[in-house]
Task: structure prediction
Amino acid sequence: MAEPILEVRGLVKHYPLTQGILFKKQVGAVKAVDGVDFDLGQGETLGIVGESGCGKSTVAKMLVHLERPTAGTIRYKGEDITSLSAKALKAVRRNIQMVFQDPYTSLNPRMTVGDIIGEPYDIHPEVAPKGDRRRRVQDLLDVVGLNPEYINRYPHQFSGGQRQRIGIARGLALRPEVIVADEPVSALDVSVQAQVINLLDRLQNDFDLSYIFIAHDLSIVRHISDRVGVMYLGRIVEIGRDSEIYDHPTHPYTQALLSAVPVPDPEAREHRERIILAGDVPSPTNVPSGCRFRTRCWKAQERCAVEVPVLAVPPHLSTVKGPAAHDSACHFAEEKHVVPTEAEQ
Ligand SMILES: Nc1ncnc2c1ncn2[C@@H]1O[C@H](COP(=O)(O)OP(=O)(O)O)[C@@H](O)[C@H]1O
Ligand SMILES: [Mg+2]
Result:
């Protein structure tokens, strides 16, 4: 990988769990994010996937400084940006922007599209002088495939897909280098999801962007991601190149997620093994000891209850040259052919 643009190490966010109204007493913690490591390469797209509640949005919010980490570091181009002075932070925030999940609630209904997209210039007037704003916003509308004449309209006059384009235009206003897109298409109709993904893909090329692309479904990030990280209960359990994760998964949780992804070809579907996991995801206030996935894992043994598996190439797979040798946090990591590869279909 080229010099990473983002390096995340040991990222943790614990929300205190309190009891009592007047005299609050801390009785525990919601371990929303519990030790996350990854790099994002320049111009790369890293997909982050996991079920609802596993901590994806909390990671996203820490990256754009909407939440302060409990522990860990975030580096941007080699500089530690985890805790900076307000002034230094302002400059960094400009370079890392977020696109939110729900285009219905994330746009202020009382503001015109022009004011929504141009709002970041209130905080960073140096990017666009007042007299230049209107032209810039119209440019941005054009770039995301909307008619520049719509500048005075209100969000309710647009469809879901168009609203997400407005959210993307706003994210681009400051010409950032990194976009953190938190489930940018999850709230959209399936028919428009691909259009918005294609738009993001094109913008990445045109503006040299690096993406963190979050989704709860492995099938959505497949075509846009260079690498994919799979999260479970506040941690990344497996991470690797696109083909390593989809065609050669070694973590049981990834294998279970993949076994639930729709397969278009009926014959391939016949041969696919469905893995049904036992029970529900445990509460992040009460994380299992050792491997946090063990309570639902068909491979779990005693060791899994006492020893936390690290996210690395598993020692017994490190001698295997090839796609199975990628980072997987499982003591018994093992390649399993879950879904027929594209070549086989
Ligand atoms: N402000 C908060 N206070 C307490 N718990 C929170 C807060 N934000 C998120 N959580 C909890 O942290 C966990 C992870 O949430 P989130 O990052 O939103 O997950 P995801 O985006 O993967 O669905 C969830 O259990 C959620 O309820
Ligand atoms: Mg979320």
In short: The mean pLDDT is 92. The CA atoms of residues 97 and 179 lie 5 Å apart. Residues 15, 30, 32, 50, 52-58, 284 surround adenosine-5'-diphosphate (ligand 1) (CB under 6 Å).
